[in-house]
Amino acid sequence: MNQPLNGLEIILAGGSGGLGSASARLLAHEDAKLTVSYFQNAERARKLDGIATIVQTDLTKAEDRQRLLNSAGSLYGLVVFTGDPSRVRHPSEFEAAALRAQEVNYLGPILLAREAAVRMQAAETRGAIVLFSTMQAVHLFPGSTAYGAAKASLQYAARILAKECRQANIRVNVIAPGVTAAGMAEASIASGKYDHFLSEGIIPRFGHAHDVARAVRFFLEPDNYVTGQVLSVDGGATL
Fold first, then answer.
1. Cα–Cα distance, 168 to 114 (Å, whole number)
2. Radius of gyration of the chain measured on its C-alpha atoms
3. How many CB atoms are closer than 10 A to CB 4?
């Protein structure tokens, strides 16, 4: 049986988008004390006013990461949704996209996770950290080198952090969403890019934001027995 999250302080970094807002509403239903950060889209973030404290943050900046962590008080959980698709339309764009991807999709999130873990350990908190990857880091997708490689690095670093935090009872896990009708994949679905996934029977349907939100809730469960794992929420696409 689930243990309630009421009163537990949880940060949803980059959590104002489709996947993050669905997770925020699910966690708010249990009266978790939420802080949601956003990078640029203040209007979208304000839609979560009333269920979360809203903070503007650039995770690539050390001072912003510290301000975000300071806003949460006694931190129990951290979920990092932050990501950039790092699309490359011409080979000349690759180097800049790869450098940006490493900064936004790997370095910022893992630094925040490690800094949060230090705080949890100092407070002797049995907490949970959840990082977001992608199906492109689990399965090979042509043209996804900049994005997929950065997210694959994040997965590897998260597993190392899980091992380092094991004795402190801080669990670290990763969610790798598939073709989900929210977040970065939403526009691609609308364009028809992934229609063949349905017509060829690769997946039974496109994913929903609540599919991912339930995975977030699972990893935040106070009595959860899982750490150091990557969960693909993709309907079997990476099979």
1. 13
2. 17
3. 10
Six-digit token string for 7 = 């009163």
Beta carbons of 222 and 126 less than 8 angstroms apart: yes
Query: What domains lie within the chain, and their CATH numbers?
Result: 9-179+208-233 (3.40.50.720)
Helices within 29-105 (DSSP H only): 42-46, 62-70, 94-101
Helix (H, G, I), strand (E, B) or coil at 83: coil
pLDDT in tens, 170-201: 999 999 999 998 877 788 898 898 899 999 99
Angstrom distances, CA of residue 177 to CA of 9, 78, 116, 135, 231? 24, 18, 23, 6, 8
Rounded Cα gap, residues 55 and 45, in angstroms: 9
Angstrom distance (rounded) from CA 196 to CA 181: 15
The DSSP secondary-structure symbol of 77 reads E
Quick one: tokens of 47?
């839609």
Distance CA 3, CA 183 (A): 28
Measured CA to CA, the distance from residue 7 to residue 5 in angstroms comes to 6
What are 35-63's pLDDT values in tens digits? Answer: 999 999 999 999 999 999 999 999 999 99
pTM: 0.94
Dist. CA 40–CA 29, nearest whole Å: 26
What span, in angstroms and rounded, lies between the C-alpha atoms of 217 and 107?
24
Cβ atoms < 10 Å from Cβ of 51: 17
Token pair of 126 as six digits: 């049995």
d(CA 189, CA 76): 35
The span from the CA of 200 to the CA of 177, in Å, is: 20
